[in-house]
Design brief:
CATH class of the domain at 92-286 in chain B: Mainly Alpha
Largest interface: A-B, 65 and 64 residues
Number of helices of chain A: 16
CATH architecture of the largest domain in chain A: Roll
Shape of chain B: globular
Number of domains of chain A: 3
Radius of gyration of chain A: 26 Å
Distance between the termini of chain A: 58 Å
Largest sheet of chain A: 7 strands, mixed
CATH superfamily of the domain at 92-286 in chain B: MetI-like
Structural class of chain B: mainly alpha
Oligomer: heterodimer
Strand content of chain A: 15-25%
Order of helices and strands of chain B: HHHHHHHHHHHHH
Number of strands of chain A: 21
Largest sheet of chain B: none
Distance between the termini of chain B: 13 Å
Chain lengths: 529, 328
């Protein structure tokens, strides 16, 4: 027997091919009041009151709301309608919104806020533990007033800036008396938000449905949100193009694809909506190493980095040069009046000569270990760039590549690095996650903190003073001084501030209308039907 | 048949120490990787203070020694309890039962398709080694085989899902479609077409080349000459004498493929967003989730052992020499 190519077989084959064209083509998923969103992770704990992180907020902020949300013109009330601090900085009074109900129909009251603050934010939350460390009690004189009492003066400015991130309110009646950490609602949250948690198919999707009893009558406008789990970034771009998903946020579409995707009918690339979620590309320095303890060496490295090249070649323009530890996106605190390090190889070489590290016969002064964080392709690419840049000033860098867990351990616990590259986050106030990059005396194992052994009593004093300065203007001035000190003494080198991009279907309305948009509650988001 | 049963019994007994070795080895390997489950989780959430990190380690049981944890795991396993996943915060058995069928469908259909078409094309190529058909098939299959799987997957996805929109881009079924029974089966089958095609095309080359090489080998043997001398028809020689003798190495390869089956789909599962076993293993490693990884590897080992047993049985049926001299 042999397979014969006959006319009949050919015709049959052609018929089968034709038949497949009759298969349904897949229409735009955004239609019918449903929005499908690409999601690259499935958080192991979806409770935003316990885990204050963007990965959790991306999904959970639509279900569980905080006391306030940031708008382009300042903090906006959400579950709290107003707040004011006392002059001694020891009490902070919140007036709470009336007529709000939980998704199970129970009324939202001050008792829920008191419970969340004392039982969840302060003892259990990754960021709240530090911010609410001096919180002693929350009093509830009536159902819609919550008075926070602090044992030490606490700046209102700090708490206010932290509100959107650290104050997601949980329903007391569903958590009280249970082991909060093990409560099944941590994976199926109940809140007051515009959307209700409906189901999670692990590895496939999360489904959120409209909350018809939302306190802001008339919202939300969309019936259903689906978070489609798509770990592969190329798949996210393809799914957008095929119309299977209507939104990909947090730069899920690779930078190199943006140009092409942006030209497709019905899709647009959006760079707004991330101003308060600025990620900073920094070089972490291990000051325990002899070379690195020398300021001239750190200055030389800063001069060897061509920031404009980094922005153009690595970020394809979707970033800005950084001047110091506070990004220009935070105008309340930012100052450009700091020591600047222009790209100047002669100066860098001269500084290294002065520092007493002459080039040997092969042009090498010394060598070191460079550990780029593997979490983003941009951090890895910058690692490759920095290695090249350092060669030009006679420093030989050996790149040590680890996966995420390995990198965390090597840098933040074992301190086994000379230089490391990290994507740190500016979270609206320098006291939340920026000063920890400089403050000395932190125990080993705390990630995204000063694990480079930098110890400067002057910097520590400045940080501690700002932490208890109640006057907003004076506190802001102290943080400007802090930026100047960091830029001058270089405990770390800030290279670029980058923010993410979204690709959205043009049928979506009210996209990117606040500076924390992907992690806000989307109550006003619309879909053209 | 008795021969086959003896083989089955012996193989089953020898698999127990193999499984123990696999468990201990995996555990120690992951233990020696830098960083633990707490480190992996801290990256995902952007860090926490020292007390938070300590609480997390205590919650995961990472504050206890390696040996205590290993003992704890093995004693639980002895009671058929796979434990709780650290990274996913769910019972491991549930996770595995959810993911395994998906991968089995994916890989099962891919291997079956590639075996059938690969060996058929192999017979076509091996029928006249050196002919134009043979050259075309050989070069074509070599070209296919050298294509990286993720690239093939992406190209198929771009052409058939993005441009032509015949098939969905990703996922295993339409989200919250409410379909049941046959309609749901059809939906899943539609979603599987592209990933199965990408995988099958890669394995197809393997089976094709093996079959062709085997046949070319057998052509040179004396009994083929004898058969031709006896005037047996050409196609009869090919099918009954040559192809049948060339089939044995293919069965071996089928068994080997089964071992690579679960791991080989990591990339394709990623590209097509399929929640399968390969992706689960990758998640377990990056999350430093020892119990989950061991669950995955244990299940894979059992599957591999089962497939190898089946292959041995088929061998015993096809080749009278296998197992014949075994003492009882």
């Amino acid at each position: 027997m042999s397979i014969q190519i006959t006319r009949r077989n050919l015709i049959r084959g052609a018929a089968i091919l034709l038949g497949t064209t009759a298969l349904p083509s897949f229409a735009l998923a955004a239609a019918g009041g449903r929005l499908v969103i690409a999601s690259d992770s499935e958080p192991r704990n979806l409770n935003p009151a316990m885990v204050a992180s963007n990965g959790v907020f991306f999904i959970a902020s639509k279900i569980v709301e905080p006391l306030a949300e940031l708008g382009y013109d300042g903090m906006k009330p959400l579950l709290a309608t107003s707040w004011h601090g006392s002059d001694d900085g020891k009490t902070l009074t919140f007036k709470l919104r009336e007529g709000v109900t939980w998704h199970d129909g129970q009324p939202f009251t001050a008792a829920d806020v008191a419970f969340s603050a004392m039982e969840v934010w302060k003892p259990l939350q990754n960021l709240g533990r530090a911010i609410f460390v001096n919180l002693e009690a929350v009093e509830t004189p009536d159902d819609h007033t919550a008075i926070f009492r602090f044992s030490q003066p606490t700046p209102v400015q700090l708490i206010q800036n932290a509100l959107p991130v650290v104050t997601s309110v949980l329903p007391k009646h569903l958590y009280e008396g249970s082991d909060i950490k093990e409560n099944p609602l941590n994976l199926a949250p109940v809140g007051t938000g515009p959307f209700k948690f409906a189901e999670h198919r692990p590895g496939q999707y999360y489904r959120l449905t409209k909350n018809d009893a939302y306190w802001n009558a008339g919202e939300p406008n969309i019936d259903e949100l689906i978070y489609r789990v798509l770990p592969d970034r190329a798949a996210a771009a393809n799914s957008l193009e095929a119309g299977e998903i209507g939104l990909a946020a947090f730069s899920m579409v690779p930078l190199v694809e943006l140009d092409r995707i942006g030209q497709i009918d019905g899709l647009e690339v959006i760079t707004k909506g991330y101003e308060a979620l600025t990620y900073q590309l920094i070089v972490e320095i291990n000051h325990r190493r002899e070379h690195m303890a020398n300021l001239k060496v750190r200055q030389a490295i800063a001069h060897a980095i061509d920031k404009q090249f980094v922005i153009d070649a690595i970020f394809l323009g979707y970033a800005a040069a950084a001047t110091g530890p506070v990004p220009a996106n935070a105008p309340e605190f930012y100052t450009p009046k700091v020591t600047q390090y222009d790209f100047d190889l002669d100066k860098a070489n001269a500084l290294l000569d002065e520092a007493g590290y002459p080039k040997d016969a092969s042009g090498v002064r010394f060598s070191l270990d460079l550990l780029p964080a593997p979490y983003f392709s941009e951090t890895k690419q910058f690692g490759d760039y920095l290695r090249q840049a350092l060669i030009k000033i006679g420093i030989e860098a050996r790149i040590v590549a680890n996966d995420s867990a390995g990198h965390q351990k090597a840098v933040y616990t074992d301190h086994d690095f000379d230089l490391a590259i990290a994507p740190t986050v500016f979270r609206g106030d320098p006291a939340i996650s920026t000063t920890v990059l400089v403050r000395s005396g932190l125990p080993a194992g705390v990630s995204f903190s000063n694990q480079g052994g930098y110890a400067n009593p002057q910097a520590d004093a400045l940080i501690d003073k700002a932490a208890v300065t109640l006057d907003t203007d004076k506190r802001t001035a102290l943080y400007k001084e802090f930026q100047q000190l960091v830029a001058a003494d270089l405990p770390l080198i800030n290279v670029a501030d980058w923010s993410f991009t979204s690709v959205a279907a043009t049928s979506l309305g009210n996209v990117a209308n606040n500076p924390r948009w992907p992690v806000s509650n989307w109550s006003d988001l619309t879909v053209e039907r | 048949m008795k021969r086959a049963w003896r083989l089955l019994l012996r193989r089953s007994l020898t698999s127990i120490p193999v499984l123990m070795l696999v468990i201990t080895g995996t555990f120690l390997l992951l233990e020696n990787a830098s960083g633990d489950a707490a480190d992996a989780y801290l990256v995902a959430i952007g860090g926490g203070d020292a007390g938070y990190v300590a609480d997390l380690r205590a919650e995961y049981g990472l504050d206890r020694s390696v040996w205590v944890r290993l003992w704890f795991y093995i004693s639980n396993l002895a009671q058929l309890d796979l434990g709780q996943s650290v990274a996913l915060n769910r019972p491991i058995l549930d996770v595995i039962l959810e993911r395994l069928p998906v991968t089995l469908w994916l890989m099962g259909s891919a291997v079956a398709l590639s075996f059938v078409f690969g060996s058929l094309l192999g017979v076509l190529a091996g029928a006249r080694p050196g002919s134009a058909t043979d050259r075309t098939l050989s070069i074509g299959s070599l070209a296919l085989y050298s294509v990286p799987s993720f690239w093939l997957g992406l190209v198929l996805s771009v052409v058939f899902a993005v441009q032509l929109r015949w098939f969905p881009v990703s996922g295993i079924e339409t989200i919250a479609s409410g379909k049941t029974g046959l309609a749901r089966a059809g939906d899943i089958a539609l979603h599987l077409v592209l990933p199965v095609a990408s995988l099958a095309m890669l394995y197809l080359a393997l089976f094709l080349r093996l079959m062709r090489a085997g046949m070319a080998e057998v052509w040179r043997q004396d009994f083929v000459l004898a058969a031709r001398a006896r005037g047996i028809k050409h196609h009869k020689i090919i099918l009954q004498h040559i192809a049948r003798n060339a089939l044995l190495p293919l069965i071996t390869m089928l068994g080997l493929q089964a071992a690579g089956m679960l791991g080989g789909s990591v990339v394709i599962e990623g590209v097509f967003g399929i929640p399968g076993f390969g992706r689960l293993a990758a998640e377990a490693v990056s999350g430093r989730d020892a119990p989950l990884l061991m669950g995955v590897i244990l299940t894979s080992s059992i599957l591999v052992i089962l497939v190898n047993l089946a292959v041995d049985m088929v061998y015993a049926l096809l080749d009278p020499r296998v197992g014949a001299s075994d003492p009882a």
